[in-house]
Amino acid sequence: MRFEYFNWLLSVLTHRRAAQLWFLCVVLSLLSILLTLPYKTFDTSIMALLPEEQSTQRESVRLAKRQLTDSASTRMLFLVVDNDRENSITAAENFTRALRRSELFNNIVAEQTVDNAVKWQRFYHDYRYGLLTPEAQALLRKEDASALVSRAVARLYSPMAASVAPDIQSDPLQLFFDWQMYAPPKTPLSINDNWLTRKTKQDGKEVYYRMVSAELTQSPFDMSYQQAVFMAIQRGKDNLPPSSDVITSGILKHAAYGAELAKREVSTIGLGSLAGVTLLLLYVFRRVRYLLLAFLPIVVGCTFAFAVTNAVFAQLHIITLAFGASLVGVAIDYSLHFLCAQREPSNHYCGSFRASARRTLVLIFPGLFLGLVSSILAYAAQGIAPFPGLRQMALFSVCGLLGAWLTVVSWFPWLPFREVKQSENREMPAFIIQGITRLLLRWPTIDVWPVRAGLLAVFFLAVLGVSQIDVDDGILRLQTSPVELLAEDRKIQQLTGDISGSQFFVISGNNAEQVLQHAEAFMPSLQELVEAGALYDFQSIARVLPSLQSQQQNIVLQSEKVYINDGLLFDFLDAIGTPQLLDDFNRTFAGARQQLLTFEDWSQHDVSQPLRPLWLGEIDGISHMIVTLAGIEDRDTVASLATLAEQHAHVEFVDNVAALEAVLTYHRQQFQLWLFAAYGIVFLILSWRYTRQAWRIVAAPGLASLITLAVFGALGIPLNIFNLLALLLVLGIGLDASIFLRESRRSPHTWVAVTLSSLTTVMAFGFLALSETPVLHQFGITVLVSLAGIWVLTPCFVDKPEQELANT
Amino acid sequence: MNKTTCKIWLLALLLIGAPLSAEQFEGDVLAERVQAIVQVSENVQGSFTQKKFIEVLPHPLRSSGEFAFSRDGGLLWKTLEPIASELHFNHLGISQQVDGETLWAIDPNQPITVALTQVLTGILSSNWEVLQEYFVLAGSIEEGRWSVQLTPKELSWSTVIDRLQVKGGGVVESIVMFEPNQERTEINLDVTYADSH
After folding, report:
1. From B114, which residue of chain A is nearest by alpha-carbon distance?
2. Could you give the CA distance from residue A277 to residue A567 in angstroms, rounded to a whole number?
3. Residues on chain B touching A86 (C-beta within 8 angstroms)
4. Which spans in A468-610 are helix H?
């Protein structure tokens, strides 16, 4: 770019109007933050970070996912545990009372009443002749169905009769009883002392887990609600016998942890960087005033960024905040360059601050501008992939950098600082400048052949290291929640046989009836997997609501095989010595046989409540329902489930984990290409200004990135998309150093600025590397290693005009 | 009647009544007393006769057979008459075999399975401690003979069992299961072997 353009742009930006306009912008940002922040919620879910739904994904699958997530995120599950039976009951009662008293929950399910079982039985009793287990259906279809009679008679003559045949006239062959045992989803919990209980053995002693579940009345991401819920849980725990404990699972727990983590990370990363930068600046510039100059752009930049992000996104993600905090170390670069350049001897830094500021800006503007462009491009590139969390982070960073930069360029010339006297000119300790000058003079450059050979060797070694690198696109590595919380979730899942939300089936049809028919056709294959032990169980509406077609077939089967003159009913009554009752029993059947259970009747009754979320309803004229799975044994089972879906029309298998991992892999591969492309594009842009020397600018970030990858390869740290994104960032930030050093013709003052800015950036990313959030940690560590490399390598590549150096 | 006469009458009544009525107990005390008479056994064998009274049937359903309980293997209930069938109650649930073929099985987490298995194995092995976990006990003991009424604590069981009446001496002799629909199952046991420990 020609100098005239730079000068024109600078004159526009440093105009009084520009400063006023920017001031207005900042005041508005501040106002909008103050007005909306109290209502803001923080998103911590890993899902928000991961790619948005693929546009190719069908609406039904998207809706299914949302429905499962919604019903999971509004529910909390508690297991009150004690190895004393009485204690566990008291504990569960006290805990439930505390939850009820808090009035923070709806629909608390705790002690069981007999109502549910009775209600269930009563509801289905009227439709009993249409309800048959697949086994009974198969037996009735056989020529010889006498096995049904012998088992019914045998059970009637056993001590089981009371439970199996409570009403001999309405269910003589106990087929309705069998169906009642078959239809409800399997669960490792049983009712014990009127509590849903899981009993396990530990060191030969019985351990009682009493289950309590509750629905949230507000969003699990609402921080004040989280606090209230935690207080209620704590109060509940305070009332327990000392031997009892409560384990909890639910999105809210993770969300609350995430919010807490966000606060902690923002303060460690933010305050850590701030403290480091402050000390560094005080050491180098020795005046508090310069601290103000250095920090003003950051504060303004972050305010602007926060306001824009706040306005664009409904929820702020923890990643944005933590990453935003690390921006301190990057955004300070513009002030640093300004402050260092102001001290250039050629800048005659004395007289009016404003005049000096203008002179300084003219001097550094091309570098400042290119630095901004490269950094903005690098940060904006983070938002290319459809990862909502990253997009937010990219927007925040771009706005933050732009804000900081605008503050330096348009406000600094107008700051009301007093005149600078000649005597104040050398606040920067002389030894720093001298030390840096000496260092720069001695620094090996690529123009000497041994260095060239050395760098070539490093290059080949790095390439060798890179070839060793592994990739890992697993989402488990990205999990934000700590191991203990996840372990607690897993424990609850194991104990309650809870269903998996990440793998399920979506079954479709033209209407409810057809969906149920398709589900019925599919169920036997699933049942086979259950019987083979590959699957614990599955939940399907079709199990508690057979299709009308199937109910009709069941009634026909019974009327042809059981309730006819010489049918199975006669054999049964004959076996128990009362053939004379045949007519009575037949009449009972005739009176009730027309009753069919319709989807509407079922869905409007309370009994359907637990399974209702599985019904997706109509989407574009097609009806859908979900079949969920519990206790998937291993990856092989997942593969067989996928194959099953392929074999059945109207059945789709959704594997969230695999889909997400595939998306991560896809984007990682894309970013590999992007990274190369970015280097190519940057090279082309730089060629415009630096012609054949452009390679010297990109060489340092390029080689440093290679070395970083090689280090990862050597240490066996697998690579994922976030490392690549970080390398893109490295290119953006790393270019600054080369550009400034080149623009200033290796001026020691610039090298001080570059060193300072590298140090502040390293500090920021160093703190980011300490983050407990895996994604941030990966960003931090990648940028940290690369920037250290860049600082060492940059002077090697920037050519050395000996004359000018000698003059300094 | 003056006050003194009243007292005398009362005393007389008590004196007459005392030797006639057996001692009444409840809960822990009853369990302990019964336990003292009949020991917890790890292996019990014997034969049974069962009468199931069903309202709509003109006569009770009679059956007979053998049973064998062992702490590790669970309970085998073997009906020999009128039709041969075997019921196994153990940690795998309940399964039913007719002519060596499994006709029916139910998993161990079904409330019905838990209830029946606990009731039958608890009674047959005379493990009153276990029974007390699931039932409220009340009963009487007289001259080494006892009679205990068991009412389920678990509400979900009360749809199947209203109450149980168990009687015996050194061993369990009879069980009557009263069901909510006015029906009942009477089982008479003849224990031929019971180890004590």
Report:
1. A190
2. 92
3. none
4. 483-496, 512-531, 541-544, 548-561, 568-575, 582-592, 599-604
Chain A hits for B116, CB-CB cut-off 8 Å, are 159-160, 163
* Candidates A112, A159, A584; nearest CB to B185: A159
Taking every pair of Cα atoms in chain B, the longest distance, rounded to a whole number of angstroms, is 76
Mean pLDDT, rounded, of chain B: 81
Neighbour count for residue A645 (Cβ, 10 Å): 20
Q: Are B169 and B146 in contact (CB under 8 A)?
A: yes
State yes or no: pLDDT of A802 exceeds 50: no
Strand partners, A651: A507
Instruction: Tell me the per-residue pLDDT of A546-555, one tens digit each, with 9 for 90 and over.
Output: 999 999 999 9
pTM exceeding 0.90: no
Among the listed residues A495, A614, A627, the one whose alpha carbon sits nearest the alpha carbon of residue A77: A495
Q: Residue A547: its pLDDT value, please?
A: 94
Q: Which residues pair with A78 in a beta bridge?
A: A212, A248
- Which residues are registered as beta bridge partners of A170? none
**Least confident interval from A22-26, A443-447, A540-544, B6-10:** B6-10
State which residue of chain B sits closest to A585, comparing Cα positions.
Answer: B56
From B63, B98, B133, residue closest to A150, measured CB to CB: B98
Tell me how far apart the alpha carbons of residues B17 and B22 are, in angstroms, rounded to a whole number: 10
pLDDT tens-digit series, residues A123-151? 998 899 999 999 899 999 988 888 889 88
**How large is the average pLDDT for residues A322-328?**
74
Q: What is the DSSP letter of A420?
A: B
Q: What's the pLDDT band for B94 if we cut at 50, 70, 90?
A: confident
Rounded CA-CA distance A33/A656 in Å is: 36
Residue A34 forms contact with B (CB below 8 Å): no
CB contact, 8 Å: A577 with chain B? yes
Best of A190, A530, A581 to mutate (most B CBs within 10 Å, chain B) = A190
**Contact status, residue B96 vs residue B69, Cβ threshold 8 Å:** no
Q: Pick from B106, B80, B108: which is nearest to B95 by CA?
A: B106
Tell if the CB–CB gap between B179 and A162 is shorter than 8 Å.
yes
Q: Is A156 on the interface with B (CB under 8 A)?
A: yes
For residue A703, name the pLDDT band (cuts at 50, 70, 90): very high
Structure confidence by residue, pLDDT tens digits, A728-763: 888 877 887 788 777 776 677 777 887 888 888 888
Q: How far is Cα A633 from Cα A178, in angstroms, rounded to an integer?
A: 27
Q: How confident is the model at residue B15 (pLDDT cuts 50, 70, 90)?
A: very low
Distance to chain B for A154, nearest Cα, Å:
6
Kindly provide the b/e burial profile for residues B164-173, where b requires at least 16 CB atoms within 10 angstroms of the residue's own CB: bbbbbeebbb
- Chain A nearest C-alpha distance from B83 (Å): 7
- Interchain proximity A161–B52, CB inside 8 Å: yes
Instruction: Compare all CA atoms of chain B with the CA of A182 and give the residue at the minimum distance.
Output: B106
Q: Find, in chain B, the residue whose alpha carbon is nearest to that of A189.
A: B109
DSSP summary character for residue A317: E
- Total number of residues shown for chain A: 808
A78-92, A211-225, A677-691, A750-764: range with highest mean pLDDT: A78-92
- The model's confidence at residue A47, banded by pLDDT at 50, 70 and 90, is low
Interface contact flag, A181 B158, Cβ < 8 Å: no
